[in-house]
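User: Some background: our group keeps a shared notebook of sequences we're curious about, and every so often someone picks one and asks for a predicted structure to add to the entry. Today it's my turn. The entry only has the sequence so far, pasted here. Could you supply the structure so I can complete it?
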Amino acid sequence: MAQAFFGGVHPNDMKAATNEKAIEQLQAPAQVVIPMSMHFGAPCTPTVSKGDYVKLGQKIGKFKGLGAPIHASVSGTVAAVEPRPYSMGGKVMSVVIDNDFKDDLSEEVHAPADPDALSVEEMVEMVKQAGIVGMGGATFPTHTKISSGIGKVDTVIINGAECEPYITGDHRAMLERPAEIIGGCCYLAKMFGVSKVVIGVEDNKKNGIEALNKVIAEQKAPVVVESLRCRYPQGGEKQLCQAITGKQVPPGGLPANIGCAVFNINTTIAIYHAIKDGMPVVRKVVTVSGSGVVEPKNLECPIGTPVSLLFDACGGLKDETFKLIAGGPMMGMAMYDLNTPITKTSSSILAMSEDEVEKFEPTNCIRCGRCATVCPSHLVPQMMAQAAERNDLDYFQKLNGMECYECGTCTFVCPAKRRLTQIFKQARRAVMDQNRKK
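Assistant: Of course. Here's the predicted structure to add to the notebook entry:
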């Protein structure tokens, strides 16, 4: 059993609605809207124009600096290149493609003659060209994480915790696609030059652990599965590193500072297909759940599919649906438009009833200190909130407010129902905006 990390909470996992439901393939839509911003860094520049014919897997967005390329998730004709609604709010430049349902594969997509004969440099380049990013939500370009960690990283960790309530896509991938996960681990082991890769899985997914261990034994793969205690946010990079290695990432630091590199289950599968098949990221597994959904499911769909079609595939929404959330209930964001598209980092879409949302008006902080006892980053949320509310961004930073990764544990335990995570999201963005202007 792995070690513990500081803080954390134990919300009801709410996974029973989908954890035994196999991943279903959603029929491709008549039109996809592919945002040019699905990664950490500046948005991509579209490389196609209205009227162009594009093929499945063709590069349609190029990046400059820190980023990752973007590819067509269907074949067809470009209907528009224009700003469209985005899941993170506002609009972002997007490529709109009318699907011809032929799935003509681009000539850019081709498998290497012998994937096992590739050099480390060739594998990293294939990951780069496939447009792989942190698909659990971090969005950091994977090729950059790998290339910057070679020679520095001695522990490669695969994040199979999937600790946030409702979400079960990674769990289903362990059961249905264990060979792809282990294959991606083997490629990561070769790129980093490590003797083994560790997959951290919470112990409420015992059948997932068994499925992975079976493939590891059959292939004699350099992979070890570590069982983790169930506690949110076990899947946070820093918490996962501490649970697996016993080492703590220093304030302001990254896992690489303690010799670790962390990759999501979906990212690992994408690495496998990029190197073995030459296939870029064009599809995503999404959990559709919540009491407002008629029939919760795990769906795999082309990137750019409107959220509305996923709900339609689940029988639609119930009348008592009160709130829609992109992501999980702890870290997700309220949705304002059902036409927003699925992206590389979409993990779940939730429809919540009024009973689930709990309509309570926040009251004054009673200084109980609960938020500080559960914060996995050792922060003092009540003081950070005071600084943020009076717009004292300097003091917010002195309190290490930028170390907050908006996990939602403080909001979860607050008896005054203060919207602490929302306050910190706004403060952190204000700090980043301020720093960009300097």
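Suggested note for the entry: The longest strand covers residues 76-85. The first helix runs from residue 120 to 129.
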